[in-house]
Design brief:
- The complex is a heterodimer.
- By secondary structure, chain A is α+β, with helices and mostly antiparallel strands.
- In chain A, β1 and β2 form a beta hairpin.
- The radius of gyration of chain A is 14 Å and the shape is globular.
- By secondary structure, chain B is mainly α.
- Chain B has seven helices and no strands.
- Classes of the chains: A alpha+beta, B mainly alpha.
Chain lengths: 141, 168
Amino acid sequence: MAYSDKVIDHYENPRNVGSFDKNDEAVGTGMVGAPACGDVMKLQIRVSKDGVIEDARFKTYGCGSAIASSSLVTEWVKGKRLDEAATIKNTQIAEELALPPVKIHCSILAEDAIKAAIEDYRKKHGLEQADGEEAAEERVA
Amino acid sequence: MSSHFELFGLAPAFAVDAAALDRAYREIQSRVHPDRFAHAGDAERRASMQWTTRVNEAYRTLKSPVQRAKYLLELNGVDVGFETNTQMPGDFLLRQLELRETLAGANQPEALDALLAEVRREQRLLVQGIAQLIDDSKDYAAAAGEVRKLMFLDKLAAEIDVAYEKVE
């Protein structure tokens, strides 16, 4: 199958590969897996006190599309507020990387990973998910 | 259409008698094989082809623990969600990351042997658990979670096979 240039670029030069200390108060960790292909993805965010994602890291064991999807998401979320980052949709990832239909699940995995990382950070700090999400939706509308 | 189990005269259970499955498969295959219909009419030849395809698919499904479990769960109205369910338990995913890191760092056949033995051990434990959940407690939702785990390990075992070709 032919990969798009953007997928190949992220695959050959993945951005933000690595790990943060998951016990760090400022770090949120999301781990997800796709049974269909056995891909495993860990995505971490480092969040400032005022709720802005300062940095992100990922580690993905999977195909080129899964690596590219997580690499792209770590770039996108930097500088975003948590509620903004939570609105990233797999369709945006799939569109940016021109993923073919059989690789859409890779973009779903990346969306679920960032959501899980945000959720983990919020849990650590006793923040309610619903409030942030509602605020985000209001802005879109 | 009869179920794959009925086709081979087996009880619909996760625990299958592998020898009985192989026997039934060879027996049916020998009756429907296209070679036997080489001089028959079009309709018969086509029917033979269709039966062969059906029998092969049923055999492949029942032979593989993951596919057999998935099929059984579907017969019982439970979707295993291979494509859609990404929320695996955290400790399981951590373990999967660890195993994949070990694979990435394995550059000797001996290291791959050790990893493969560990993966096979975990596969066996999962298969035992799935048999218990499907056949004994009939807890299909819990079984689906274990089948998803087995998918990850099957995939990893296949990747270890590929890695052998690189180190040897």
